[in-house]
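Example: Tetratricopeptide repeat protein.
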Amino acid sequence: MSQDLQTWYDQGNALYKLGRYEGAVSRFDKFLDLQPAHHQAWTQRGYALCELKSYDEAIASFEKAIRIKSKHALAWHGKGIALAKLGRYEEAVISFNKALKHEPEDIKAWYNQGQTYLHLYRYKEAIASFDKTIELKPDNYQAWYSRAVAMAALRRYEDALTSLDTSLTLKRTCFYAWNYRGLVLTKLSRYGEAIASFDKSLQYRSDNPNAWYGKACTYATQEDAEAALKNLYRAIVLSPNLYRVMAQTDSCFDFLRDNEQFQDLLKKR
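Written out as structure tokens, the predicted fold is:
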């Protein structure tokens, strides 16, 4: 390979690492014009296109790499990521399976496969993927959190709580794990602990409408109208469209349907 060609390739990789993805794609394009059978360059180009949200182009790039080297795990993984971003989850699972066949210890591929199974509501398979992620990297707090989400979806709330506690042991400041822990504790009718968990979430991120809404639901479940309305108000201030819509259909607020203050909160301004 000539020095100029090597320079294009090295610059593409360097620009990618700096987050200058358009520049990276243009360098890889120059390189591939003269070296079209270089599967790594097609793969790196695909990842840069993913960062630019050009997912269809990224898939085409990964497929070029795969045609050149069918066992290139990184290209299969990238294709899976791009397919999942497009909501093509069934196809994404096939790609992740291929990636893992060729690189069975790829932690990110196991994790991304698990996330894709979550989108497909295939919770047992999601748990198996997260278990594998954790086996390979026990301190992956995101995998412990995602495992809890899958467990809760199967109504295995005690198991979900154990996973969340492990996640929070690994990353104490993970506000969304504190928030989800509050939701799980509410399901277990452990309301005081649930409120404390939402408060912990707000301690780490105050502009967190999910936690205010979670508190509102917990108080509503106990039919504490004043506290429920106060916390629902805080959620709606931060994210009016989403939480107004959610509160309209959320059964925990059924006892408030005739409450004037509740009705007023749900009106669009």
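The mean pLDDT is 95.
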